[in-house]
Amino acid sequence: MKYIYAALLLHDAGKEINEENLSKIFKAIGEDPDEAKIKSLVASLEGINIDEVLEKAVAMPVAAPAAPAPAEQPAEEEKKEEKPAEEEKEEEEESFEGLSALFG
Question: What is the model's pTM?
Fold first, then answer.
């Protein structure tokens, strides 16, 4: 990858992408350049319009985000659903008591 990055740096600087310039980059950062990789890269990039390739790469659509997870029920609803039968009976009795007070 670092050889490709070096080529992109040269392209961005407006310099020719050739074996000599790529070797200079690696020597500048204190690495011994791999001449075989450099020759292969220069040969691979021959006749390729890098600007056009970069433009197409940016224009490619990205993957759609994953669908959100189903929403959890609020804690109050869970509590209501989990009420024991005894509590429900007590509430029902209380409501009947209130009605009897209305009708005396």
Answer: 0.54
**Residue pLDDT, tens place only, 25-81:** 999 999 999 999 999 999 999 999 999 988 888 776 666 667 676 666 565 555 555
- Enclosing domain of residue 30: 2-59
- In CATH, what number is assigned to the domain containing residue 50? 1.10.10.1410
In a domain, residue 10? The reply is yes
Query: How crowded is residue 96: how many other Cβ atoms within 10 Å of its Cβ?
Result: 10
Question: How many domains, in total, are found in the chain?
Answer: 1
Distance CA 86, CA 90 (A): 6
